[in-house]
Every structure is written in C-alpha cells, then in structure tokens.
Write a structure and sequence with these properties.
This protein is an alpha/beta fold. Helix content is about 50%, strand content about 15%.
Length: about 325
C-alpha cells in the first residue's frame, strides 16, 4: 500500500476511503507503468514496419515542450472514449457467458442513459460497479486481463475520440507522461492506456488474493474526490509540479481533480462543468455534434444513436426469448 507520505497538503477535505482508494490507484498505476515500459522495450526490439497512421488534428499550443515537471491526466468515460468503459466491459463479459441476459439488459439501459444525458448518474455507476465485482469474484486477474484485451478490440477501439487522442499525443510529443484517471477497473484502464500509447492508468482497485478477485474494493471507487487523491499521490511520487500539469474531463464530478492542476480542460462537458469552466475561464473542447439540445446538455446525434441501439438491442433480446 502506498505510504501516506506521498500526499502533499490538501486544499480540501477528503474521506479516509477516498485517500485509500487514491493511494492504492497511484501505486497500481506506477507498477503498471513500469510493466508497460518493459513491454514497449521488448516490442520495439521485435517491431516490424507498419502502415503510417492517418493524420491527427493540429497540435494545440499547449503543452510546453521539455517540461518534465508537467504531466497530463485524462478522465476516460466520455472524455477519451464515447460511453462508459465499465458498460462496454460488461457487454464483453456477457458475450463470454459470465452472467445472464437480465444483467446485460441493465448494463444496456445504463449505457443508453449515460449517452443520452451526457452525465454520470452515481446510482447507475455504483450499480454497475457492484455488478462487475460480483461477476468477477473468484476469477483470476490474469484471465480478466486477457479477456479485457479482446473486449477493447471488440467494443472500445472504435469509440476513442480523435480530438482527445490528439491532445494526449501532444503531451507525449512534448516529452510528458500521460495518465488515464477513471472509476473503471485499473486493469481495464491499463489496457486502454497501453493501446493508446499512454504512460499508464489510475483506476479503481479491486482486491485480489493469490491472483484471484475477492469481490471487494480497496477503499472506494476512484470517483470524484478519490480521483483528486490519486492524482495528488501520483504527482508527489513522480516529482511533478501540479501547477504545471493539465487535467481533462467531461464531468462536474471531476472538478476536484481539475482544480488541482494549473491547466484544467473541460472536454465534451456536461452542463454543470461547462458553467463552472466558463466562470473560471477554463479551456473547453467539445468533439460531439448536434449540440442543439443545450438546456440539458444532450448530444443529439449521440442520443439518436443510443435510442436506435437500445431499440435494436431490445428487439434482439425479444427475438431470442421467442
């Protein structure tokens, strides 16, 4: 477990469970980052020529090249990726018969609601995490990591926002580390970070004994204040200056994390975060389309897609039942 000495003085209160979750996530992130570096070195030695990647959007004016005291922290759900990672992960587990059809229906409804509203519902997210914990209990960590690789290719790779991906690449090109910070399981987040070429990931740490999940969490989900604690702990351990760091998120729940850094960005923001960001002159980026329903912050195009997807899923389930 990470030492309490990692933490710098806090500018706000935090619960003991938030601190525990943040420190556990920071420790897991540093460990996974070291493992990713080793894998990258091995892959580079055996690399073969690949087709050039399509051009990315123009690099932003920030970050400062060569500033090794700076890093970037990116929320995952609806910031880097459309939708919620835990719901996509649940869909993949259902395909592999980890749970029954009624669980899939609940996951599908929560994902559709998330895309329609454009904001996180704490009860939905908690329900999804509880379901995921019960589903993986008794399974080996290595097994879920292997399955997670497949699920990324099946459901997540095509949902990465190119604009946010370009922002992360700008930090990497400037010689800075880039971390995902998410309530999703740290194993899932680490897979996504590695696939995107990022440094590593801070995520919710599920307890395991002898490589087998116990069905419990270490601390609490990495959400809201716990994210800020994780970033603070990791920055201290890495010797970073938070005033020179950047953070990116779509949700007002991440205001504690965004407020920690000197360069906060609101990406695809919900209504509360958009208002907060404008009041404080934070930078905003919106990579969604059809923002006509501004009153409730609903991305119209995404909403239509979610409704269509939800209808198709309902029809498919009905046909299978009959």
């Amino acid at each position: 477990m990470a030492a309490l000495g990692w933490l710098t003085p806090r500018r706000r209160s935090a619960t003991a469970r938030s601190v525990l979750a943040g420190e556990a996530s920071a420790e897991a992130a540093r460990k996974s980052s070291q493992e990713l570096e080793a894998l990258d070195e091995a892959a580079a030695a055996a690399a073969v020529a690949e087709e050039p990647a399509p051009p990315e959007p123009a690099e932003p004016e920030f970050p400062v090249v060569g500033d090794d005291k700076a890093a970037a922290f990116f929320d995952l759900d609806n910031t880097v990726m459309q939708g919620a990672a835990i719901f996509h992960f649940g869909r993949g587990l259902y395909k592999r018969k980890f749970f029954e059809r009624q669980e899939l229906a609940r996951f599908a409804w929560q994902q559709a609601w998330f895309r329609l509203a454009g904001v996180e519902d704490p009860e939905h997210m908690q329900d999804a995490r509880d379901s995921a914990l019960s589903i993986v209990k008794g399974h080996r960590v290595a097994e879920l990591m292997s399955i997670g690789e497949e699920i990324y290719d099946e459901y997540m790779a095509e949902r990465i926002w190119p604009g946010t991906r370009a922002l992360a690449q700008a930090h990497l090109d400037a010689g800075q580390k880039v971390w995902l910070v998410t309530a999703a399981p740290v194993e899932t987040a680490t897979i996504i970070a590695r696939r995107l070429g990022l440094t590593g990931a801070l995520g919710t740490v599920a307890e395991s004994m002898d490589g087998i999940y116990t069905g419990k969490l270490v601390g609490e989900p990495l959400h809201g204040p716990a994210k800020a604690e994780a970033v603070r702990a990791l920055a201290s351990a890495e010797g970073l200056d938070l005033a020179r760091c950047a953070a990116y998120s779509d949700s007002h729940n991440d205001i504690p994390m965004l407020s920690l850094v000197g360069h906060p960005y609101a990406i695809n923001p919900d209504a509360k975060l958009r208002k907060h960001a404008r009041e404080r002159d934070w930078r905003l980026r919106d990579y969604r389309t059809g923002r006509k329903a501004a009153k409730v912050g609903i991305p119209a195009a995404a909403g239509v897609g979610a409704l269509a997807g939800g209808t198709a899923a309902a029809i498919a389930l009905h046909r299978r039942r009959h």
